[in-house]
Amino acid sequence: MGMNFFQRRKILRNADPLELHPVRLHEHQFTKDGNICLIVPKFQKRWMRDFFISGRRKKHFTIYLDEQGTATWLEIDGEKTVQQICDRLKEKMGEKIHPHSEVEDRVTQYLSQLYEQRYITFRELQEAQPEST
I need a labelling partner for 66 at 20 to 30 A (CA). Which of 34, 56, 93, 117 fits? Predict the structure, then answer.
């Protein structure tokens, strides 16, 4: 059995957001403009996909990310902390990120949106899950 909302929230509330390790939950593809789009299944459970989506209709949503969103997504590997991702973005994007001092705030806010949409999770939540047998 997974953790409930309150258990997850407690772990996230007690952690320093910059020390968390984001983990991607979805595949992505590159678009013509060099940014990426996320491939998000419409239904997580297979029987629901089969039941609700018949014929030719797409079985997933496509979520398009802008340049900064793409750069952030590509840094998420389950190994880097949020702080390390911010540092890498400052290196890579340099002058495109204004002002420099707000990178941590913006990235933390962006990652929390990705988390709320269930596009990412955090390694700390995965590690806290009781082993399923």
Answer: 56
Q: How many CB atoms lie within 10 A of CB 25?
A: 16
Whether residue 49 contacts residue 42, with contact meaning beta carbons closer than 8 Å, is answered with yes
pLDDT band at 48; cut points 50, 70, 90: low
Q: How far from 132 is each of 8, 64, 129, CA to CA, in Å? A: 17, 34, 8
β-strand partners of 61: 40
Tokens found for residue 66: 């802008």
Whose structure tokens read 């018949």? Answer: 54
pLDDT in tens, 79-131: 999 999 999 999 988 777 666 568 899 999 999 999 999 999 999 999 887 66
How many C-beta atoms surround the C-beta of residue 24 within 10 A? 16
